Amino acid sequence: MSTIKVATLPKSHTVYTIAVIGFIYALHLVIPMYSNSSFLSLFSDETTVGYIYMASSALSILTYLVAPAIIRKLGNYTTALWLVVLQIALFYGLVKSQSALTLEVLFILQNAVISFIGLTLDIFLEVYTDGAKVGTVRGLYTATLNAAWIVAPLIGSMLISNSGDFRNTYFASLTMLFPLLYLIYRNFPRFKDPNYTHLSPWQLTKHISHNRNWVRLFVANIILQVFYAWMTIYCPIYLNKVIGFNWEEIGVIITVMLLPFLLIQYPLGILADKKYGEKEIMTIGFVIMGISTIFLSFITVASVAIWALALFITRIGAAASEIMMETYFFKTVSPRDSAALGVFRITRPLSTFIAPIVTMIGLLFTTNAYLFAIIGVITLFAIYPASTIRDTD
């Protein structure tokens, strides 16, 4: 692949700019995330909420499949701008609409747009990343996003606790979209798209399946994303309705829980570039995550400290596995390969589709508490694909 020269900004400066954009993007995504399911449950039963998430996931998967063609036609810069404008309209609808059906449709659509915006940011970052520093750059970018993940739940819970109105979280997210739109518009008008690889669905399937390491990585990532999706949808409801925490307490628990993403991912990304192989850290992460999640089934006390610590330990494992998968994948994919990047990101909505099914089937055989044990066991199945990936050089 020939060197891509992009005007005006040095790469280091641009990487930091993309990190700031990513932080704002993550804020708008996460502020309402942990209360989304509770908001939907105000006018839908738990089963319907599951179906809404499944429909949202199906549309996000379709979005990833058509995204490469749209980006090739419009360019990544123009695509990103129009997606943010569309997201502004969708969040305005979530703030103002009173119709349950309209709110459900808007929720499904905005989730798909969120996924697409994230894909365009990945392409910006991949183009500007020096191949020798993938782990460092990805560690920085992921840590920046996760800083937003730590702050945003606390902001969201405070907005709910102070007013009792879930819509305040959508209004806060709406305000984040305007600086996001400005920063993309201001910094990338001369962005030059790489010569994106054009593959049919069949060719793409063959392209990915011929790389056994990618297949193993995708399987492990699906399991990780199922863990995330289930925890995002059902853990806040469980803490609120079963354990009895209020939303302010849940906000504190979630903030502490997410600290490992900020504390360890950037250092681990540097280590992956300089010293250790990705698969060893990835495998250890899944072991920690699986075992600690199983133990959550046996915590029944309504103690903020105990739940925060227990969930913190699960995220130590998750943070380690996630950054190693990000580093590995982006060391082995080029910016031109937007289709493969889209498939890698499909694991997120696919997992959100799977998570409600896990709950529905699990509740046929056990109680809410032991769903944590089921998710923990599922997480442990990722140890095999993670441990059999061949490390990058």
CATH topology: Growth Hormone, Chain: A
Full CATH superfamily name: MFS general substrate transporter like domains
Could you estimate the helical fraction of the residues in percent?
A: over 70%
Radius of gyration based on Cα positions: 20 Å
Structural class: mainly alpha
Given the C-alpha coordinates, what overall shape results?
globular
- Count of structural domains: 1
The number of strands is 0
Helix/strand order, N-terminal first: HHHHHHHHHHHHHHHH
**Top CATH class:** Mainly Alpha
Task: Tell me what the structure shows.
The chain is mostly helical and 393 residues long. The chain has a single domain (11-191, 199-387), classed as Up-down Bundle (Growth Hormone, Chain: A). 79% of the residues lie in helices and 0% in strands. It has 16 helices and no strands. The radius of gyration is 20 Å and the shape is globular.
Secondary-structure blueprint:
Elements: H1 11-30, H2 33-40, H3 46-74, H4 76-96, H5 100-127, H6 134-163, H7 167-187, H8 201-209, H9 212-243, H10 247-257, H11 259-274, H12 278-295, H13 304-332, H14 338-362, H15 371-380, H16 383-387
